[in-house]
Amino acid sequence: MSRKKYLAMVVAAVCLAMPLLGNSAANAAPVASTAVQQRGLMPFRAARIDRNITRIKDMTGDMMYLVEGRDRAALIDTGVGVGSLKAYVEKLTDKPLVVIITHGHVDHASGTAEFADVYMSREDGELFKEHTSFANRTGYIGAGNPAFARSISEVDYQPQDNPERFKDLRAGDTIDLGGVHLDIYAIEGHTHGMKAVLLRENRALLTGDGANMFTFLFAKETLGLKSYKASLQKLQKATAGKYDKVYCSHGGGDLTVDYLERLIEDCDHIMAGKDDKVPFEFMGQKANIAYEIGPDHNRLDGGIGNIVYDPQRIEE
Boundaries of each Metallo-beta-lactamase domain copy (predicted)? Predict the structure, then answer.
């Protein structure tokens, strides 16, 4: 296997978050959510990572976070929309739920139909419609976990939701769970509507896919590298001294506390032409991986953070 093909497979497996080119929302199939409930399919695992925070992982490795306050709980992201996430979460908490969608990609936003109270940036509304189609979800799951894809059928998928019913999630918003406050910040780049969540009392910053072990920055819905760097700098300044932990949505889920700073440095290296420029092709789109990685997914140079970017959009 060539080095290029190997790297493409690794990055796709760790942070697969792009739509299937050639499939459209028009191909979406109607799904009966009652069938999901009847089968009782709940393909999730959970681990408590703080006194009131539970990390939930689905069968494609995508992560969601349940944050509990005194009066209610927040579910941050809803995964690929297979099985009943709502039924699973209700086994973890009996508090009323509010759902926060960090961005409109398939692996974060596809399970919203079960929930009444949902927040997502309106900037990602059209992206949500494209990404959460039935065709896109089946392709994503098939690529990320083929064995799991073969074990499920159409009735196991939640129906595609209508984002027009969602409440707009905006930078500067605060969601009060009762003694636990979630402060919303913009982290544009991976998508235009991408949001980070500061868990104020827990002193933890949840970056979603906005700052990840492989930040994808080459699809049509992403910003250019220069704009992404500016977004990171703005977030870093706004949250300085407010957190001691950083959580993301893929890989191990935990990032170093200086991760934003390291990613900003990575942007500088790319803009100066000092990165490795590893060629990468994913579903017809060509990009560069900034730094070469080994079998353990870590950078060979020992550095922190990696960006998969469009070399034609560095100065955007």
Answer: 61-250
The type of residue at 17 is A
H/E segment holding residue 101: strand 97-101
The total domain count for the chain is 1
Q: Taking the model in full, what pTM does it have?
A: 0.88
Domain of 41, CATH number, reads: 3.60.15.10
Residue 41 and residue 84 in contact, taking contact as beta carbons nearer than 8 Å: yes
Distance CA 99, CA 115 (A): 7
* pLDDT over 90, % of the chain: 74
Q: Which domain holds residue 156?
A: 3-313
What single-letter amino acid sits at 271? M
Q: How many CA atoms lie within 13 A of 312 on its CB side?
A: 7
Phi-psi region of 64 (alpha: psi -120 to 50; beta: other; left: phi over 0): beta
Worst-scoring range by mean pLDDT, 12-21, 71-80, 162-171?
12-21
